[in-house]
Amino acid sequence: MANASVVPSTYLQGLTPAVPEWLNKGDNAWQMISGALVCIQSMPGLVIIYAGLVKKKWALNSAFMALFAFAAVMPCWVLWAYNMSFGEKLLPFWGKAGLAVSEDFLISQTILPSTQYKNITSAATPLFPMATMVFFQYPFAAETVILLCGSVLGRMSFRAWMAFVPLWLTFSYTVSAFSVWGGGFLFQWGVMDYSGGYVVHVASGAAGYTAAYWVGPRSKEDREEFPPNNLLLALAGAGILWMGWTGFNGGDPFAANVDSSMAVINTHICTATSLLVWTCLDVIHFRKPSVIGAIQGMMTGLVCITPGAGLVQGWAALVMGIASGTIPWYTMTVLSKKLPLLQKVDDTLEIFQTHAVAGTLGGALTGLFAHPYLCSMFLTVPNSKGSFYGDDGGVQFWKQLVGAAFIIGWNVVATSIILNVIKLLIPLRMTDEDIKIGDDAVHGEEAYALQGQGRRDRTIQNVTFADDDEVGAFKLPTPESKVSHLVVTETALLLLIFGLEFLAFRLSSFSTKFWTRRTYPRKLRDDTAALQQ
């Protein structure tokens, strides 16, 4: 009979490669759980929010655009984009590309090499493996792209979207992430973004609004009448999104510590307050409480607290909730009907208002209310604090505004260039006929089968077909040769885009000898030993 007191080697700290001395099991577990919560925010959270908030004919297309983006980001992330966001510095706003798939890299202790602040503080070295960090940061990148697509639902070509996702991740998201989080110039300057108010939300709002401009508006019929097809589904997605934000903000200290607890409680204080304020304003202005308004108020509260979740006190989170339930409500309900620019661009789900406006607001308020003691727990830049606590001339507040301006400017320019390049090869918009029909024309499928046993009717030009009729294989009246040629051409183009991106960034990583199999573990051991001394 085996001795029950013998501990399996996989649990012995420092005596097996599975549990190295530097590993903190609690931090590692919390970080993986937080990453899973952020994944659930997107899949299924945002997927079903989009499916519920759009018109019935766009439910499937909207959900599938989100699902595709969530999947497409992953291979790009591990092949080049992670290291461009969190690796060694190539430019003040960009990291060096490199693979994040090798055994030596993924099982070594996490290090963010560019986060060293001058010669004062060392680079961040959380107590869990690189595999955990790569996984945790992946859904942030995916969610940013998914949020962006909310601005162009109901008319953007799916094939253009397939080309857009890897290009935008590479040339836009990685710049924002490295500049603010990975040790770039905004990080070194002291711009505060606790867990993505700028990197995720301001970026997605600005890029989404720009994309909506270039893709063009929805059809006149859809703009005038676009009722949500399933508000209960949208509410379910909103609930998943809210609860998932516990990991979104709570995981960013990279440890299960006091600061992560502050981030979690502040997240829920601000969100609940924002939802209540937005609902009260709806009752005052429209005489009725709105479910859609409650979802929007929830969203702006989540976004607003994100830049300062673990940096502000509870009373400040309450103030930020009041502000996020008021200012975006005003810009969406009143200002958007007065400013010609806001009227000209058709932002389907108001991503600019709920994310860019709320994210900029949250960043500015963080610049006012960030508490010095809480900042010292998280930020590597010493003496960080909000203007409310005595910095000269409100310096931090102005830094926050400059940081937001850079994120907005870069995303507007990069998104414009990417879409205009794609436009040369693939139409950005669906055809007018596809826009008129919706899911059935784009995917040959519909979200809801209203006939018995899963059958559905297809009505085109006043002629109705059922799936089990003799004409069940009915196709849209597009010449087969034209469709075949278009599909082959665009598939080849997408493969070429992926191939060129991978080749370019693989060569970049090879030429700089970035974290090779031998030098990286040795460098990590040296850095860890120096820190322990």
TrEMBL record:
Its membrane topology: Multi-pass membrane protein
Cellular component aspect of the GO annotation: plasma membrane
Gene3D superfamilies linked to this entry: Ammonium transporter AmtB like domains
UniProt-listed SUPFAM superfamilies: Ammonium transporter
Record has Transport as a keyword: yes
Residue ranges occupied by any Ammonium transporter AmtB-like domain in the UniProt entry: 29-448
Keyword annotations: Ammonia transport, Membrane, Transmembrane, Transmembrane helix, Transport
Cellular localization per UniProt: Cell membrane
Protein name as it appears in the record: Ammonium transporter
Transmembrane segments: 29-51, 63-82, 135-153, 165-186, 198-216, 228-245, 265-284, 291-309, 315-335, 356-381, 401-426, 483-505
Species of provenance: Castanea mollissima
Pfam family, one: Ammonium_transp
Family: Belongs to the ammonia transporter channel (TC 1.A.11.2) family.
